[in-house]
């Protein structure tokens, strides 16, 4: 079993930055891909970013490239999402997830464990 706890969400003005973190426990994540997803009210959960087990490959939703950066620290069992130039449409609950493989992909079905989420609200 893997437990994931997100933190770092909050209220930020449009154009601002925020970094959300995800702490994992219960198992080393060294061999597994991780990802961030988000879900806005009334919308489906959508892929934000993913990172392979080594951190050597990152991938993003096309609409977010250039503004969001995913990273990980395997020694600390942490994954991060740096969000810059935030827009009101980025408002959502952000979830981190762990895949059972070294590459999780962009579908929620590719991930086996999920955190409870952290709220990010961007005001205009």
Spans of 5+ residues with little confidence (pLDDT < 50)?
Answer: none
Number of beta strands? 11
Structural class: mainly beta
Query: How far from one another are the termini?
Result: 40 Å
Radius of gyration over alpha carbons? 13 Å
* Shape estimate: globular
Biggest sheet, in brief? 7 strands, mixed
Specify the helix fraction band.
under 10%
Order of H and E elements: EEEEEEEEEEE
Number of helices: 0
Q: What's the rounded overall pLDDT mean?
A: 94
**In percent, how much strand structure appears in the residues?**
over 45%
Summarize the helices and strands and which ones pair or pack.
Layout: E1 3-7, E2 10-13, E3 18-25, E4 34-39, E5 46-51, E6 58-60, E7 68-73, E8 78-83, E9 92-98, E10 113-114, E11 118-123
Parallel strand pairs: 2-11
Antiparallel strand pairs: 1-3, 3-8, 4-5, 4-9, 5-6, 7-8, 9-10, 9-11
């Amino acid at each position: 079993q893997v437990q994931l706890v997100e933190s770092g969400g909050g209220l930020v003005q449009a154009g601002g930055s925020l970094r959300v973190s995800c702490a994992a426990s219960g198992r080393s994540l060294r061999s597994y891909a991780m990802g961030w997803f988000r879900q806005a009210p009334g919308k489906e959960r959508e892929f934000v970013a993913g990172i392979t087990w080594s951190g050597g490959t990152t991938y993003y939703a096309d609409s977010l490239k250039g503004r969001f950066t995913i990273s990980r620290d395997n020694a600390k069992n942490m994954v991060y999402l740096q969000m810059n130039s935030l827009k009101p449409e980025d408002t959502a609950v952000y979830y981190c997830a762990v895949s059972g493989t070294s590459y999780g992909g962009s579908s929620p079905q590719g991930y086996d464990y999920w955190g409870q989420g952290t709220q990010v609200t961007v005001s205009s």
